[in-house]
């Protein structure tokens, strides 16, 4: 969208199409009359250098990579473009979206229907956040939107980690009486043979073996329950007494707050890190490298997505849910630092001005704001 509407207004594009008068008219709207001629000469020189570079450019895949990384402007653009795309994935968003029913169960909601319904709400919030981005990103700026988004993400992930940690520590205990209520053959073997079963709680039961499940107390699901074998007959016996059957998470008074924080996490993510990295990658590269740059950043995005989504369940088993979200918070902090250092602000700039800003380079660090220098000739 941005590319389609911005290119026809670009003096460089007009000049390359031999529409010299139209290019001059655009420059006359931007610069004082006494500077237009100098700008036209700079434009002519820039276009000629660009054409010469294109004529000498080799078009094999390895040659393209060599030419791109050998170009200072493109290289800095790739640093920024790849940074925002990888950061977008390593905040853990797609793991949350892909496994949201599992995460909802980990938060203490045993019903599959409830977990699925709550996960659909998270997808709806993601869509709503994208609409917010469409309305405000041109006012607030790309870089600022991402930085605000990352602060919100980090806060939500840290608090979410704390909530899951508390839920795990305050899981209902396992009772011999409750477990034996369903018969010795229904009790989980790991619990029966444990050296110190009196110290077990619901999370201990679920983590002990993939063949263990927790049947909540019939009177109050937060009271001591049973650690049972994970099979259809035992599950049926548990549910026949109107008890909740847990295989992923445990009954928790913190569950509602965990779901609320997940919603805030998605609301923080969607308007900023959800959409802006794609906008930045449509604006950050010189025209002749735009396809290569955007494609390279997209490959980085999907590679990061693959890593996060394929390791999420393993991480929750190894580190626990709390540890996994805290790990994502750590990655988010690194992403925030990288964005502050490497990503410039492209709000309101023409493609040529973005290229000039990347050429200078020194204004990228920490600030990311570019101001037109009317005493210099622009590189179109």
Automatic annotation (TrEMBL):
<protein>
    <recommendedName>
        <fullName>Major facilitator superfamily (MFS) profile domain-containing protein</fullName>
    </recommendedName>
</protein>
<dbReference type="InterPro" id="IPR050814">
    <property type="entry name" value="Myo-inositol_Transporter"/>
</dbReference>
<feature type="transmembrane region" description="Helical">
    <location>
        <begin position="292"/>
        <end position="313"/>
    </location>
</feature>
<dbReference type="InterPro" id="IPR020846">
    <property type="entry name" value="MFS_dom"/>
</dbReference>
<dbReference type="GO" id="GO:0005366">
    <property type="term" value="F:myo-inositol:proton symporter activity"/>
</dbReference>
<feature type="transmembrane region" description="Helical">
    <location>
        <begin position="144"/>
        <end position="165"/>
    </location>
</feature>
<feature type="transmembrane region" description="Helical">
    <location>
        <begin position="115"/>
        <end position="137"/>
    </location>
</feature>
<feature type="transmembrane region" description="Helical">
    <location>
        <begin position="78"/>
        <end position="100"/>
    </location>
</feature>
<dbReference type="InterPro" id="IPR036259">
    <property type="entry name" value="MFS_trans_sf"/>
</dbReference>
<keyword id="KW-0472">Membrane</keyword>
<dbReference type="GO" id="GO:0016020">
    <property type="term" value="C:membrane"/>
</dbReference>
<dbReference type="InterPro" id="IPR005828">
    <property type="entry name" value="MFS_sugar_transport-like"/>
</dbReference>
<comment type="similarity">
    <text>Belongs to the major facilitator superfamily. Phosphate:H(+) symporter (TC 2.A.1.9) family.</text>
</comment>
<feature type="transmembrane region" description="Helical">
    <location>
        <begin position="325"/>
        <end position="343"/>
    </location>
</feature>
<feature type="domain" description="Major facilitator superfamily (MFS) profile">
    <location>
        <begin position="1"/>
        <end position="347"/>
    </location>
</feature>
<keyword id="KW-0813">Transport</keyword>
<feature type="transmembrane region" description="Helical">
    <location>
        <begin position="254"/>
        <end position="280"/>
    </location>
</feature>
<keyword id="KW-1133">Transmembrane helix</keyword>
<dbReference type="Pfam" id="PF00083">
    <property type="entry name" value="Sugar_tr"/>
</dbReference>
<dbReference type="InterPro" id="IPR003663">
    <property type="entry name" value="Sugar/inositol_transpt"/>
</dbReference>
<keyword id="KW-0812">Transmembrane</keyword>
């Amino acid at each position: 969208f941005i590319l389609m509407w911005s290119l026809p207004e670009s003096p460089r594009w007009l000049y390359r199409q031999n529409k010299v008068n139209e290019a001059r008219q655009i420059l006359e709207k931007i610069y004082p009359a006494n500077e237009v001629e100098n700008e036209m000469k700079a434009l002519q020189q820039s276009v000629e250098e660009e054409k010469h570079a294109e004529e000498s450019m080799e078009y094999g895949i390895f040659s393209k990579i060599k030419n791109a990384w050998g170009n200072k402007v493109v290289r800095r653009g790739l640093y920024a473009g790849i940074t925002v795309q990888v950061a977008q994935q390593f905040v853990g968003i797609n793991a949350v979206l892909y496994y949201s029913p599992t995460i909802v169960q980990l938060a203490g909601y045993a019903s599959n229907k409830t977990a699925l319904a709550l996960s659909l709400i998270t997808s709806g919030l993601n869509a709503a956040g994208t609409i917010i981005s469409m309305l405000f990103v041109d006012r607030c700026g790309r870089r600022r939107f991402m930085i605000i988004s990352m602060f919100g993400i980090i806060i939500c992930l840290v608090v979410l980690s704390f909530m899951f940690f508390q839920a795990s520590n305050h899981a209902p205990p396992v009772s011999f009486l409750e477990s034996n209520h369903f018969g010795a053959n229904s009790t989980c073997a790991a619990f029966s043979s444990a050296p110190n079963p009196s110290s077990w709680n619901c999370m201990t039961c679920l983590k002990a073996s993939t063949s263990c499940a927790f049947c909540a107390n019939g009177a109050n699901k937060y009271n001591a329950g049973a650690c049972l074998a994970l099979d259809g007959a035992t599950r049926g016996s548990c549910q026949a007494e109107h008890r909740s059957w847990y295989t992923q998470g445990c009954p928790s008074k913190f569950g509602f707050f965990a779901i609320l924080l997940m919603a805030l996490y998605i609301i923080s993510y969607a308007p900023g890190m959800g959409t802006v990295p794609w906008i930045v990658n449509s604006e950050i590269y010189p025209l002749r490298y735009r396809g290569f740059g955007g494609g390279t950043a997209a490959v980085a995005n999907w590679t990061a997505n693959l890593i996060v989504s394929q390791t999420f369940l393993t991480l929750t088993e190894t580190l626990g849910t709390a540890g996994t979200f805290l790990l994502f918070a750590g990655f988010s902090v690194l992403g925030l630092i990288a964005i502050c250092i490497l990503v410039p602000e492209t709000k309101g700039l023409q493609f040529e001005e973005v290229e000039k800003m990347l050429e200078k380079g020194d204004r990228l660090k920490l600030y990311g704001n570019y101001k037109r220098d009317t005493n210099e000739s622009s590189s179109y």
